[in-house]
Each structure stands twice: as C-alpha cells, then as structure tokens.
Amino acid sequence: MTIISFFIILSYVALIGSFAYGFHKVPTFKNQTTAHKTTFSIIIPFRNEAENLPQLLDSIKQLQYPSNLFEVLLVNDDSEDDSVDIINNFITSSSLPVTLLNNNRMSPSPKKDAISTAITKANNEWIITTDADCILPQLWLNTFDAFIQENKVECIVAPVKYISQNNFLNTFQILDILSLQGATIGGFGINKPFLCNGANFAYKKTLFKALNGFEGNNQTASGDDIFFLEKTVKHNAKSVAYLKSKTIVINTNAQPSWKSLISQRIRWAAKTSRYNNWFGKLTGSIVLLTNLFIVLAYSFTLMGTMTSQTLVYLLMIKFSIDLYLINKTAQFFNQREVMKFYVFGFIVYPFFCVYVALASMVSTYQWKGRTFKT
C-alpha cells in the first residue's frame, strides 16, 4: 500500500511541478504597439442573463479600442427574462457596433450553435468569445491587437479570474480556478496546451471555417473552447499561443451556490471522456486518481491498512506542490489574499473532486434552466 501511494503521489508531483515550471516559461506580454490594425468580432451567447448584462454592456462601452475595428454579436439562446430588452435599450442608446441575433439551434449544444450562428454573420478577421456574466478590461482588444501584430498566431488563449467576495464558497472557487489557470499556462509553457476558457478565447475566422468549426463535437453540450483548441493544436500547434498579460484578464462571477457550482463542474467533467488530447486525458486521470486516493487514504488509515505517518506524508507532499503552483498563479492575478483560506480549500477539494467525477458518470445536470445528459 505504501509503495502504491507514493507512486501515485510522485506522479502527481511530477505533473504539477511541470506546470509550475511551464508557468515561468510563458513570458509576460507587454503591449508596446501603438497603431491599431486588427479587426475583431466579439461573440457573446446569452440565456437569462438580465442580472449580469448591465455590467457586461458597461464594460463594452469602456473599451479603449477604435469602434470601427470591432463589432459585438450578442446571441440570444431563448432567454425568458428581460435580457433582450436590456440589450435593445443599449443598442438604441449607444453608437457602438452591437448586433442582437437569435440562436439557430442545430445540435444538442446550445452554446456551440450560438457561436456558429454568430460566425456566419461576423464581418471581421478575428473571433473572440466571452460570456455574458463577464467584465471586459478596458485594454482587452488593444492587448490582443498588439500580440497578434507581434506574433504569427491563429488561436490565442487568455486569462480568466473570478471576482472576489467575502465568503468561503467564493474563495473555494477562486482557489479552484487559480489551479486551472496555473495548469493552463503551465501546459503552454511545456508545449502541451490542453486547457482554455471560452470566456477569453480568440481565433481567426478562416481557421474556424478550415477546421469545420465544432463538427465532430456537437453531441457534447459543453466544450466549445477545449474541443476547438484540440482541433487547432492538432492542425498546427505552433499557431496556438497563450497571452499572459494582466491587461487582458477577464473578470467573471463565481457560482452563487454549492448546487450551481456542482452542476457547473459536472458539466465540465462530462466532456473529459471525449477529449482527443492524450496529455489532457493523462492529466485528468492523475488528478482524479490522486484525489480519490487521498479520500480513500483516510479510510485506509482508520482500518489500519495504512499508517497515520504515511497519510501525513502524502498530505504534506500534495499540500506543498499544490500551494507552490496556486500561489504563483494567485500572484499573477493579484489574488494573494485568498491564500489565507488555502488550508480549508485543500481539505475540502479531494471530496469535492471525487463527488463531481462520480456524478458526471451517472447523472444528468441542470444548466441555464435546461437538463443535459452527461
């Protein structure tokens, strides 16, 4: 048992350690370009987002990029609240190039359909996807533009963080997304890109068409971002880059309840079995196996099949390597204040991770008022 436990934990240490190493390998981008050239079509699917749309629309208004070089395509996915009225009022009162579209449903994946619908109407060279519950930084498009001018890329992954609130649920989610962002950046640093977030994801329209969009992945409700990243990496890994810059960080809201958080994570976990990237599958397997073993280790210790000393060693090793990566990521995102709750998050996470993984295998989940099969 001791040999098995240390083999599992050492595999985990090697994986997370490689992400920490890769995190340093990705240089921080500094915008030194002054002449704006790139044209963007910003695509934002929405469903029942009346509560979040005002802050999103206000952040669009604050973008410091020439309005003749971008357009915003908001895609209504059968909203049942006041979302459409809010957007129409914004369009009427604003001179910005904002268009409201209705989603053309063609598959079991509403979000993929919404993005595909918008791309058929998009006029510009680059597509950027984000979500309706996000706040866009003022220099968002400026930074994308400068990076594109200085690098030969066709697909760009960019950072996302949760807005801080003073409660454990929010802090737990921040620690979780910091670990995901650390793994995302680290994966690029070791030339194994496997994660991205559709809330801050850009690619050329010609690339989307050349790869036939989401064809082949339409039966999975989520995954518009990761599945397309996989396609792009397979097509030409050198054309994909991570844009590591604080001026491009998207702010978004964490889930308001444990129930909605679990539904979100089940939705995320449900697509992992369909990954085509071997490194992504390996990473998911090692992380799940390690957290499962930590959960079981408590029982093994109580039953006497594992010594308490071995359990303590395992916990200390995992605690240290997780802390190393998350602390680096928190520093980049200016969220070091959440680290004071790291111990509590560390205790809860293995049980949360295992529960979500098991639930994603056997149940349906609710999202945006709809029921999806895992």
UniProtKB/TrEMBL annotation:
User: Does the record bear Transmembrane in its keywords?
Assistant: yes
Q: Which residues cross the membrane?
A: 6-23, 278-300, 306-326, 338-358
Family annotation (SUPFAM superfamilies):
Nucleotide-diphospho-sugar transferases
Q: Which keywords, in A-to-Z order, does the entry hold?
A: Glycosyltransferase, Membrane, Transferase, Transmembrane, Transmembrane helix
InterPro entries the UniProt entry points to: Glyco_trans_2-like (IPR001173), Nucleotide-diphossugar_trans (IPR029044)
Q: Which Pfam families match?
A: Glycos_transf_2
Q: Which GO terms describe its molecular function?
A: glycosyltransferase activity
Q: Which PANTHER family match?
A: POLY-BETA-1,6-N-ACETYL-D-GLUCOSAMINE SYNTHASE (PTHR43630)
Stated family? Belongs to the glycosyltransferase 2 family.
Q: What is this protein called?
A: Glycosyltransferase
* Species this protein is from: Aestuariibaculum marinum
